[in-house]
Amino acid sequence: MREGPMRWEGPERRLSWSPSADEEGSSIPEEQRRCSLGAGFCEVARAHHVQAESYLVYSIMSSGEIECGNTLEDALDQALPSQAFVYRPVRQRVYALLLGDGRDGASPCPTVKEWFVYSGNPLRHPDLVRPLQMNIPGGTPDLKSLWLNQEPGVQGRRLDALLGCFDLSSSREELQAVENPFKALCCLLIYLFVQVDTLCLEDLHAFIAQALCLQGKSTVQLVDLQLDYIDPRAVQLGSLLVRGLTTLVLVNSACGFPWRTSDFMPWNVFDGKLFHQKYLQAEKGHSVEALVEQNRSRLTKFHALKSVVCKACVKENRRIVSRQHGRSQQPGRWGRQGSGSHRTSSGYSRAGHGQHWRDQGAGNRPYDPDHWRRYSPSSGFQVSYHWDQKLYLIQFQSC
């Protein structure tokens, strides 16, 4: 158990969870880490961590580091952003909730070391990421009220904090009307479609249809599913959603569990092979009725969930259109080598239009205009699969 991680550690880096990590010290000084929290909150976070009731919260609070050493992304597809960047604004708001954002002037603004893999990042140095100010109606609640308060009204404040982390406070009413387990899925889909301009109506149809059909599928049926071919974009979209579910677990933990964790476990709302089937069907122009397998009950739920996501996106000035419509209106936007747009970066507000995701700087690193377009074979293992004459890349870096 000890030798395995040691073999993967580079000469300039030691994983925060390796046996000697504590000897090297924390990236956030003790007084900075707990100045606004109180020493007891780290113990509460540790207790949840030991009982597997939270995800990454204790790591952020105790060492000021967070890791994601693997990803499933097509390095040749510039129309889809890396999951490391898509969910960074959410993580930054979680940092503000857990560590403070330095606005009070009494303490310096903390930074968190992010070891996130993406194309062109050899993981020799972490991205130094600062908290992002939250916009929550009534102000940002403190950890004492989120974690320890048992009054009846506090659950509403916890939900406000969760939606604030995704910057979706305006969608609270619509999401509250959605039944479980689809409430969390809709929250994630709204965030994704607002952030990533290259997602289209067919993608939304596939995500919703697979979630509805999954409820009636047995394990044997899922195993026996046969796909005509593998589409790299579908694989990356599935990976992007699953990474979003893990991000949702982090947010839910940090906010005091306003939602049941079981509602966004992948086996309840997402299956990769089933999604791939629905994605291929949607790409071929199959009707919504066919996507939900001619089930009237599912069809009704499909339109209800789609309406929630689309209306919430319209509030954020994001209109979801079909792929064919997007091609006719904006040539090249939907192409695999197109100029995809990602709306939010580390210090970027949604008040303006999106910017190209590869132009974002990595935390506090010096900006290098070619940084995101480089890929060094020495940065990790690159496994290539030729599926349907398309090159798909899987990178594993310093797991």
TrEMBL record:
One of its GO terms (biological process) is fat cell differentiation. InterPro entries: Coact_PPARg. Keywords: Receptor. Residues 1-15 have a biased composition (Basic and acidic residues). It comes from the Eukaryota. Residues 1-30, 321-371 are annotated as: Disordered. Residues 339-348 have a biased composition (Polar residues). The keyword Methyltransferase does not apply. One of its GO terms (cellular component) is nucleus. Signal peptide: none annotated. The keyword Secreted does not apply. This is Constitutive coactivator of peroxisome proliferator-activated receptor gamma isoform X12.
